[in-house]
UniProtKB/TrEMBL annotation:
Belongs to the binding-protein-dependent transport system permease family. GO terms for biological process: transmembrane transport. It is a multi-pass membrane protein. PANTHER family: ABC TRANSPORTER PERMEASE PROTEIN, ALKANE SULFONATE ABC TRANSPORTER-RELATED, MEMBRANE SUBUNIT. Residues 88-284 form the ABC transmembrane type-1 domain. The keyword Membrane applies. This is ABC transporter permease.
Amino acid sequence: MTSGADRARRRWSALLWGLLGVVVLALLWEGYKAVGPPGGVVLFDTSILPKTDDRSMPHLVDMLSRAIEPVNTAAGSPPVWVAVIGAALTSLGVAAVGWAIGSVVGFLIALLMQRLQVAERAVLPWLILSQTVPLIALAPVIVAWGGKIQIGAFSWDRWMSVAVIASYLAFFPVAVGALRGLQSPDTIHVELMRTYNAGWFRTLLKLRLPASVPYLLPALRLGAASAIVGTVVAEVSTGYKGGIGRMIIEFAQSGTSDPAKAYAPIAGAVVLGLVSAGIVALIGLTLKRFNRQEAAS
C-alpha cells in the first residue's frame, strides 16, 4: 500500500520535472536563437526550422517585458497579461460548457454500447469516423444552423456554436475511455453479481462505474484538452470575439511591428490547457477511493 510520504514524493517529483521541462524549452528557444541562421534552416527549398530574427523569434525577456505593458497606446488600455487572462477566462467558460456536454453525451453513448453489443458494433465505427471531419468545415455549418434557432425570447448566440464544437471534440475520448472502463471488470466479478441476483443497473452502480474510474479520468483529461483546442479553433472559425482564440489572431496581425506581443495569447492558451487538466485532477481527488490502481495502457 502506498504511504502518504511516497505520494507526496511523487507529487513533488512531477512538479520538479514539469519545471525542468519549462527550463529546457526556454534554453532550447534561446539557444537556437543564438546559433541558428537568421533565415532559418532550409532543406530542398523547404523550411524545416524557423527564422531567428527578432520579428519571427523574439527573446523571452522581450516577451515577458511586453506582457506587463499596455495592449496599445489608448488611454486606460490594460496590460497585456490582464487582457490575456480575461480572454482566457472567457474561453475557459465556453470550453467548460462544451466539455460538460461532450462528457455527458460521450458517457451515455458508452453506456449504450456497453449495454447492447449490437450498438457497440454499429456506433463505434461512426464515432471514429466523426473525428475525421475538419473543424474548418464544421464551424460554418453549426453557425448557420444555430442562427435559425429561435424559440420565444431565446436566440442562438455565437458562443453556443463554439461550445457545440468543443463538445464535438470532447465526447469522443470520453465515450471510448468510459466504454473501456465499463467493460473492465473481470468475468468472475460480473458472474458474482449475477449470483446475487443483481440486475444491470445495480451491477452498473456497484461494479462497473467504480471499475471505470481509472479509465474515465484520463479520458476526461483528454476530453478537456480537446475542448480547449476546439474552443480556440472555433473562435477563429466562427468569428466569436472575446476569447483567447480570437486574441491570437488579433495580436498576430500586429506581429510585424510588435512581435513579442503576439506570443502572449499563445502562452495564455497553453496555460489554459494546463488549468483544464488541473480541474480534472481535482475531480479525480473526489474519486480517489475508486482509483486504486492504474489502468493498463
